[in-house]
Structures are given as C-alpha cells and as structure tokens.
Design a protein that fits this description.
The protein is built from nine helices and twelve strands. It is of the alpha/beta class and 302 residues long. The chain binds NADPH dihydro-nicotinamide-adenine-dinucleotide phosphate. The site of NADPH dihydro-nicotinamide-adenine-dinucleotide phosphate has 26 residues, from helix 1 and strand 6.
C-alpha cells in the first residue's frame, strides 16, 4: 500500500491532483492533501509531526511561497528564506521517515536569465536567474542540488518536475492577474508582448502522477506544453476576455514591468517518454477556468 502525502495540497496544483485522483483512485494508493493548517512547513517540529501522523511512503511536494512578478520583486528575501526552510524541512523529514520517493516542484521561471532557447533540464544551474525573482529561483534550484545529495549519500530517489506557467480552477486571482468583469477596460500589466507556455493544472496533475509512479530518475523533468503552444500575454488576455464575454477594451499598461521576455522550454524529454500525451486545448482550459471562477467567486482567492 502506498501512502502519498501532498504538501501544498490546498493550492492550485494540489486541488487539481485531488480532482484527478478522486476520478480514478487506485486501490493500492491512499492520498492525503495537506495545507498550511495541517502544518506550517517552515517549522521543523510541525513538519515532523505531520509526517509522523500521516506516515507517507511517497510525497508530492508542492508547498511553497508562490507569487507573481510584482510580489516577487518586492519580497526576494522572504521568498528565499521561506522556501529554503520549507524545502529543507520536507526533504530531510521525508528522508528520516524513510519515504521511498519525493517529487518536488521547480518552475521554468528559475532558469538562467541569459540563455539559449529552448531551455532544457540540463540548464537549471547555468547562470543567474532573472533579477525579479532570484529569491524564489535560488531556493527552488537548491531542491535539485539537495535531491542529488540525498541520492549520492543515501541512494534516495528524490526528484523534481519543472512546470511552465500553470492555470486552472482554484488559481490565485489576486490583482496582478487582473480579471475583467463589468468594467469597460481590462488592463494588462506590461506590454503584453512577453511569451509564455501555459499548462492546465489538470493536465499537469496527470503528468505529476505519472512521474510519481513511473519516472525513475533524480534528474528534473520539464512538464510543459509544446514550444508551438507558446502564447503572448496579450493573447492570454484576449482568451480570458472572450471567456468572460467581455466587450470592453484591452489596454496594456506599459508602466508596469514585463519580467523575462520569454522562457521557452523544451518538453523533448517528456515527449520521448510520453509521446502521445494530449494537452487540453488552451481556449477550452481557459473557458473551464473562467467558468470555475464565476461559479466560485465568493471563495476564490483574489
Ligand atoms: P499555490 O499558491 O496555489 O499553493 C501553495 C500551497 O502551498 C498551498 O497549499 C499552501 O497552503 C501551501 N503553503 C504555502 N506556505 C506553506 C507553509 N509555510 N506551510 C505549509 N504549506 C504552505 O501554489 P501552486 O499550486 O500554484 O504551486 C504548486 C507548486 O508549483 C509550487 O511549488 C510552485 O512553486 C510550483 N509552480 C507554480 C507555478 C504556477 O504558475 N502557479 C509555475 C511553476 C511551478 P494553504 O493554502 O493551506 O495556506
């Protein structure tokens, strides 16, 4: 019997995993989705108590201080320290309690700022990250370093996935991801020109479950849509406006920062292992997410 503990189980990705697991829960797996109310993972004793209570054999480690560009730019120290603490507490406690496998989450935004494209898994440590989010990025990069160190010293199979930008039901709709409603103007922060790859949270959840069960390497793996599915921020805004049936004007506020212009990632490694995985079509996934936001407006994070 596998016991899977999901840290960050109440967030965007955690809720998607829960939805996928509920649909086809195998009989030899029991899952527990922990939020910060279960344990503050910046605290070692609380982390140990959670693991002692749940006795996981496997861990999907999603818990993190996560924020958009503007939150990161002003809080690099907090992003660095909180994420370093959370990651060290979770990995060391998992090791001490004998967990067989831990799948942690990096992000394509932690890759070097100056790089060649497409980015691949071998480039995580090749140079400084974008200055806007160096705290978050270095904390995340150290998960990969730590995974290798647990493997070298103890033979542990602790690995990591590298998702591109994620969206879906239960997202955090705070002001920097402006959502149009009845207003006449929908403001896009920045020029709208930067390019991004977006993965739907439910697709990512399926891929992470596959990683947990079938991907046996310490080396990280990029979980992203194909390079051809990259879109501009303006195109994302258009898709959101369409899903809201918004008839007003889309305006780019160029006084706001753009962040990294692009961070095109290659999913060739994923495709070599899972050639037929079908990602949900972008507009369909946006429509479903917008419908969820409208239906859950009162308790959505915003
Ligand atoms: P969310 O912000 O939606 O959720 C964060 C989760 O972490 C919540 O369950 C939260 O618990 C938990 N958490 C935060 N701080 C603590 C703490 N001190 N102790 C215990 N739990 C804590 O994040 P996402 O689902 O979007 O992200 C999941 C993972 O994916 C993260 O590791 C993130 O870095 C990574 N990622 C995210 C991307 C994105 O676009 N969103 C892109 C690429 C990677 P609670 O809500 O109960 O307080």
């Amino acid at each position: 019997m596998k016991k899977v503990l999901v840290t960050g189980g109440t967030g965007l990705v955690g809720k998607a995993l829960e939805a996928v697991i509920k649909n086809h829960a195998p009989t030899d797996e029991e899952w527990y989705f922990a939020g910060s109310k279960d344990a503050d993972l910046t605290n070692l004793a609380a982390t140990q108590a959670l693991f002692a209570r749940e006795k996981p054999t496997h861990v999907i480690h999603l818990a993190a201080m996560v924020g958009g560009l503007f939150h990161n730019m002003n809080n690099n120290l907090d992003f660095l320290r909180n994420n370093l603490l959370i990651n060290d507490n979770v990995l060391q406690t998992a090791h001490e309690q004998g967990c067989i496998k831990v799948v942690s989450c990096l992000s394509t935004c932690i890759f070097p700022d100056k790089t060649i494209y497409p980015i691949d898994e071998t480039m995580v440590h090749n140079g400084p990250p974008h200055p806007s989010n160096y705290g978050y990025s270095y904390a995340k990069r150290l998960i990969d370093v730590q995974n290798h160190a647990y493997h070298d010293k103890y033979g542990r199979q602790y690995t990591s996935v590298i998702p591109c930008n994620i969206f879906g039901p239960h997202d955090n709709y705070k002001p920097e991801s402006d959502v149009p409603e009845s207003e006449k103007v929908f403001t896009v922060f920045g020029s709208g020109k930067p390019l991004r790859q977006f993965v739907y949270s439910l697709d990512l959840a399926e891929l992470m479950i596959w990683v947990l069960r079938s991907y046996d390497s310490v080396e990280p793996i990029i979980l992203s849509v194909d390079e051809a599915q990259e879109v501009t921020i303006y195109e994302v805004a258009q898709a959101i406006a369409k899903a809201f049936d918004f008839k007003g004007k889309l305006v780019c506020d160029t006084s706001k920062a753009d962040g990294q212009y692009k961070k095109t990632a290659s999913n060739a490694k994923l495709r070599s292992l899972l050639p037929d995985f079908a990602f949900t079509e972008f507009e369909t996934a946006i429509e479903t997410s917008v419908r969820w936001y409208k239906d859950n407006y009162d308790h959505a994070r915003k």
